[in-house]
Amino acid sequence: MFDKLGKSIARHPWRAITVWFVVLLIAGLGAFWGYGQGGVFERLDNLTSLVKGTESDDVDRLASSDASGTSISVVVSGLDINLDGAPLAAFMADHRHLFTDVAGVKTEADPFLFPDPTMPQAQAMYSDKSDGFIIAIVLDESLTSSEVTTAEADMDTAIAQFTTALHQEYPDATVGTVSNAAMSNAVMSQVKVDLVRGEAVGVPVALFLLVIIFGGVLAAGLPIVGALVAIGIGMGSLWAMTFFMNVEVFTVNIASVIGLSLSVDYGLLIVSRYREELATSLARRGYTTDGRRMPDKAAATPIVREAMEVTIRTAGRTVFFSAVTIAFALSALLTMKAGMLRIIGVSGIVVTLMAVLTAMTLVPAIIVLMRRVLIKPSFITRVPILKSVVKAVGDSSSDHGFFSRLAAGVHKRPWIIMVLVAIVLVTMATPLKDVQARTAFSDYFPQGHPATEAYDTVQNNYPALVDPTIVVVADRPADQVQDLSAHLESLQDVDFVSPAQPLPSDDQRSMINVHIDQANQVGKQVTQEVLDLRAYDPGYTIQVGGPAALQYDFVQSIIQRAPLALGIMALAVFLLMFLMTGSVIVPLKAIIINSLSLLASLGATTFIFMHGLLGMPAVMGMETFILVCAVCFGFGLAMDYEVFLIARIKEYVNRGFANDNAVEHGLQRSGRIITSAAAIIIAVFIGFTFGDMIPIKQIGVALAITVVTDATLVRMLLVPATMTILGKWNWWAPKPLRWVYERAHIVH
Questions:
Q1: What is the value of pTM for the model shown?
Q2: Based on CB atoms within 10 Å of each CB, which residue in 129, 217, 377, 410 is the most buried?
């Protein structure tokens, strides 16, 4: 297959380029225009339910249906209610029509509507600091989704007019909006900003490093071109998915991070291997790569084609099976019950396949069309300082150099190195014992955004309107749950318990909101209260929900499916590495080492965010879905470097080299690629930490540390040390499996 693909690309490059252009055009129009159906950013969702069918999900659904229609809260602040009570009442009487005149509004309520300002209903809508009030608006429940959208847009206009009028009499007043649409737009706008900011930082740094590695701008730009095409098509794929499933907003950022990093990874290996094969082909025909004796256009064509065919047959095969392994690792997410994790898994698989396909077809096609361009030395190699840098860290290498000497040094004291590296990795992993998995939707609201400030104002200044800590649904009418209410009031640190209210859909059932005075509303104490309530029997059925319950059910769903997910990842790694090496020891060792490396990276990430180090915010816990994604993505990226290294080592083993010599030559040939790719990917991941969304910061830091750990301690030291200790046993397999390998093996 790879021989045929190499010949096809080498002889018909325009075919591949044309296909990619058409696909990118179709996908790009879908992602950013939407063919009249809205672009990808307009169609994304902010999920409030994590695992359908769980107890917390049922309660969340019932609680959401408690309101008669879509609710919008207008939060007015910066006033002195004690002094301006009467004038404000007059102002509201004159301007209330701005809200009630909006088509689709069912009710409008504000504290000035009540005849007695001391009434509980009125007091609930006043700030407890006497510096503002709430205007509660409810849309008619009979409105269609499009009518709701129109009503919300008209309401925004009304709020703007109200704000202008208010500022004329109260210049220091501020007006904010709290609604599902407002919070969703706040999150979405921040996602867009963070995406642009991350790529604005990561792509230029990656391009600069590629220029140094390849010693030229054109060669450096090839992996970036592949990355941009892969990301563009990936965005189009996400847009298409929105028609069949709910796609969560963070999926765009995560898909972009993975698409960019893998595209650069694979493109780097393809371009580097091509330059290696090109130098060999040129030397065989008496040409040089220093520009002194170059082939003309006609002579260059067969040389370029030959080098590209070998590149796709070797490096192309390696990156393809590496991508397949990552795709299988990400498919572990498909086993999860949470829809958010499944869609992240699907999008990750899509961008992984796009990354490898662009690296195997588009990048080679562009190279073939360039013919002599990549043979000529770049002007950069003639700049004195840059010339030295390119020579020191460039992608060209011989069989002897820094990395072969490093491997030889490891061979002399493998046990010491293995033990020391293991100690470092275990030490890095120790913070995991204190990790707190956290899932709180309020964490996703961007700080400083007007909608977030309005939401925080409600939570801090309006006790009666604060989001409940625990929501209890009872299969009893509201007037028959006094015993349950009394039990809820006896819970530890309870601030207040709201009166039982009948469910609109079923007046034989009731709902009670419990407010607990805890800084961490999804912490251990609140979670324990949830579990205790679920075990409590008042004599009738109750269901317990709320933020902590949603988090607990989410975590439990992951724990339940973790054995299957981890089994899929381990099986994928074992099969790939066995088919590449014919050994059962190499894949088993890879699983163990990669797992230890991953735990170490997650531990270091946890430590950074627990203590707010390196400019990162100190948080109460690691986002649960980020931990899961970091495991799958991190394991896949670690396998990238494992494949790059082992493939070259096995190549020398097949040529008859002794085990230690094969390790030295393999590390020398792949070491620069691994460290170069790692440096670039780290730049990409760190770029995404410049955004404001904490989950994206966490995934960026986690994957950056994973790559640093894997490309240095693991690939450069631990793998050579263990291979030295095992010696010939590295390549052992039972006779039946050797028979399988002979018929289905992968050759680099």
A1: 0.83
A2: 410
